[in-house]
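Hi,

I'm pasting everything inline rather than attaching a file, because the server keeps stripping attachments. The sequence lines come first, and each chain or strand is labelled.
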Amino acid sequence: MNRLHVSGLCASLLLLSGCPTGSTSNSQSSQFNDGLNAKIQANIHEGESSAKVVAAAFQDGVRVNLIAADVFEATTATKGVLLKSVNVHTGDYIGTLPIDDKGQPVTITIQHKPIEAREDRWYPIDILNVDPGPGELVGRFATVSFPTELDLLGPSNNTIYMDRDDNINITWNPSGSEDDMRLSAAITCSNSSAELSYGLSYSISDDDNTGLYTIAMNKLVYNDSITALALEFVEHITRIFLAATIEVLTFGLIEEIDLTSSTIDIETANCDINLTLIREREGSLDDEFDGGKAIGSTSASTTILYRPNGI
Amino acid sequence: MYLKRRSSTLPLTLLLTALLTGLSHQAAATEFYLQGSLALSQPDGGSDSDLELTTSPRIIAGLAFTPNVSAEVGFYYLYTEQDSEKEDVVSQYLVSITSKDILLGLKGQFNINNRIAFYGRGGMLLWNTELELEENFWDIIPGGKVSDDDSGVGYYLSGGIIIHFTERLYMDAYLSHHQRNDIFKDDSNYPIDVTETLGGVGLGFSF
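And the predicted assembly:
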């Protein structure tokens, strides 16, 4: 029980505040150096002509809330968007940036925008404005470019698996580049009386550029809570843009109480699994940052079904 | 971005036309009256303004040219603020509105008997409206207050009932609508309208 408690707490902290995953193989693993860090990702999902841009800054490991009209702005050569807070004071910022040319880079800069940042307010914001001026983070920037678009070949949508030992062959057209690959899964299991959602993430080694990754269903649908807590949960910045992309707002949000008190018999529950394959390319951060990551990525999704009791 | 809005002046025009027509066909001794009232007002500054229900005083002086038609001038005072402090990722903020308005218009009334009359009144609302913003940044950095005001012409429409206690003293109960359009339209890309729906009760005295 103690282990469950500690693990559950760690999972919650990981997912809610972005604490380290503990996985050093993870290309997005948190790097909480002392000083100012940033985690920034821009992702183009298959079939879309815009990028979801997610950003967070950390000071000595603590997420920084940008206030007083300091904002993240994502721009291409022709378009720009201010990132909005996922919720007030979460320190996570997200926006949708139209992309005219997927070969062009995106720059994410911390700007001071005293009027634009208040545009949702009801009164004349250009007349009534208490502006303390730009904060010390203003001017920091990162640049990312997008890897080749992902062409996810299989499995096809709504493929059904009935055994936890089944292997899932995930195939795609390899790009021939050295971009990193990642598989994220948003899993919702339910029976007649309850539902449980969580998210998992795996780094994929594709050094041979085969375009094939095989994963067993039991790596996605676990059979007890201890196993679940040992799995690598979705890193927070990935979770945010996946949540926005596939519209699963509770993506990855798993609590101890969910695991220990769930009425779901995971052995018999039906699960819908959204698999999102992500091709990631590391970008560059301004030298003023002491650490962190900037990533450009492309992604594609498919949904598979786990039906242990048959169709 | 904002949408430029224009108020419809048709109801006001019709009312004034009817009252002036009535006035031109009547000739009688003039009568002066004075009345004061308090109204419960629900102001609205547009979506998400969430302004507080407030109590607002009004004074009107009138000159009755006929038993049914009067010309009036009045003063109306409004103070309201957001019903709670709001916050977003920028700051915590509270906006208040103070408006000092002159009313210029006509009143036409229909006498049920020598004690009770129904009336309608309308006219120009010469508004001087001030907005004040108090903005704070969670005490991380200093906040402050700023304010600015604007003037313009809107309109008011009202209907009510008069009940005489004596020949000269009467009670007035009414419903009104006040419209102030495009406040700060010359100085801001984000002008607002401030409207009010209000109901009030007051006392009047005829001299």
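Chain B touches chain A at residues 45-49, 86-91, 93, 95, 131-133, 135, 137-138, 140-148, 183-184, 187-192 (CB under 8 Å).

If the labels don't parse on your end, tell me and I'll reformat.
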